[in-house]
């Protein structure tokens, strides 16, 4: 049991440590303090692209590509070997649902009166655009690379679609609520990191698949925010009470 605990902890923290840096480090949205200190004015359209913001997704994707070697002694195969030795019968479907939970949390908070950064219409358009980019990228790569899954069930291993979905959803939740809840990025990316770890525990993906999926999911949703023109609903800066 101690060996199993060490293995699970090791894999989980590999994913979590690489993804926790997605939190507040790349927040560039303009925030203006109003005369009333209890209010913060968030200017729409100020979450603009900056090359510095590419460092985290580029690092994740580049690391995943470097680890995507099919050599027997490669890092990704060593991790699968450890998994098969210590938890060969592990199986759960939690990751199938957990990947969408940040989106449910976001709209759930809004339904309970805890307003997000962006109004409902623009927020939904941003989400749809980010999801389409993420899904399209994952689909093209899966069908172009034909990477065999570690459980040899099919050739759709690279990249991890579940992880890409989880990180796209986590980025959406973090962007909408990190101004109100400082711990929201840790919660959202913690959930996403857990999905990536579970995909490896389930023997459905290599660590390289998970890292690239994380980078794609994050970058897809951030790009949707960067490029959004806010043509629907309100166009004036939002005044939020915090």
Description:
- The chain is 59% helix and 5% strand.
- The chain has 242 residues and is mainly alpha-helical.
- The protein has one domain (2-241).
- Strands 1-2-3 form a 3-stranded antiparallel β-sheet, with no helix packed on it.
- Helix 6 packs antiparallel against helix 9, helix 7 runs antiparallel to helix 8 and helix 7 (161-177) packs parallel to helix 9.
- The longest helix is centred in the middle third of the chain and has 26 residues, at 120-145.
Question: Helices and strands, in N-to-C order?
Answer: HEEHHHHHHHHE
- Low-confidence stretches are 23-41, 235-242
Radius of gyration: 19 Å
Number of strands: 3
Structural class: mainly alpha
Global morphology: globular
Q: Major beta sheet, specifics?
A: 3 strands, antiparallel
Q: Into which percent range does the helicity of residues fall?
A: 55-70%
What is the count of structural domains?
Answer: 1
Number of helices: 9
Q: Strand share of the residues?
A: under 5%
The separation of the N and C termini measures 46 Å
Order of the strands making up the biggest sheet = 1-2-3
Q: Look at the structure and give the mean pLDDT.
A: 84
